[in-house]
Task: inverse folding
């Protein structure tokens, strides 16, 4: 079973040379630490930055450099700063090649719920709605089961939706899935040491096993 770092490392393998990538709040922010150093990639933060680097070492934090989740970050040579209007202009005009988001639930149709739990106070939806409406490619980084052991890969989301039929791929502590064209979670890879039966028990939505699910390489 993977921890959050393991999920981030696996998702980093999805990033290609020359990509512009938006990293959402939570597990996705960890991906910045595992992009190969010889790969030319530009990380975008919707609060107004192109060119994020890895997280700073302890004692080297700059409180003026933060990502959309208010975590301190570093920059790389050539980084650019701008206002949120320009940042969302980039997102809405589909300049971002890959968006990596966290989620509370994903449906077998590719719907995502990641911004609100009814009855709990939230400051706002942030940039999530724009990201899912405009992204060409969305990968979700999430835990597959909640603290009660209930699956978060569902036939239908129970929480308020952020986007409809927008998720392409999901990486969890148990495996890698793609949303099949006809609906359903197609298992592509298993996390090290995880069996098919464990994955079946942790997937409430339709699970598709029509390809050989090899053990994940981290």
Result:
């Amino acid at each position: 079973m993977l921890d959050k770092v393991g999920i981030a490392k696996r998702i980093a393998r999805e990033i290609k040379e020359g990509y512009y990538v938006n990293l959402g709040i939570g597990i996705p922010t960890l991906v910045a630490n595992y992009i190969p150093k010889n790969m030319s990639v530009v990380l975008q933060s919707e609060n107004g930055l192109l060119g994020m680097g890895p997280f700073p070492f302890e004692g080297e934090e700059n409180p003026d450099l933060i990502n959309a989740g208010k975590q301190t970050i570093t920059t790389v040579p050539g980084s650019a700063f701008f206002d949120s209007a320009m940042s969302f202009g980039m997102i809405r005009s589909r300049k971002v090649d890959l968006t990596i988001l966290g989620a509370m639930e994903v449906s077998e149709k590719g719907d995502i719920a990641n911004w609100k739990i009814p009855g709990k106070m939230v400051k706002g939806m942030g940039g999530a709605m724009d990201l899912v409406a405009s992204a060409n490619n969305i990968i979700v980084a999430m835990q597959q089961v909640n603290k009660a052991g209930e699956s978060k890969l569902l036939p239908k989301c129970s929480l308020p939706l952020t986007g409809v039929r927008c998720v392409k791929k999901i990486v969890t502590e148990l495996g890698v899935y793609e949303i099949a064209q006809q609906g359903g979670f197609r298992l592509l890879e298993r996390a090290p040491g995880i069996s098919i039966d464990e994955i079946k028990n942790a997937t409430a939505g339709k699970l598709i096993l029509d390809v050989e699910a090899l053990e994940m390489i981290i």
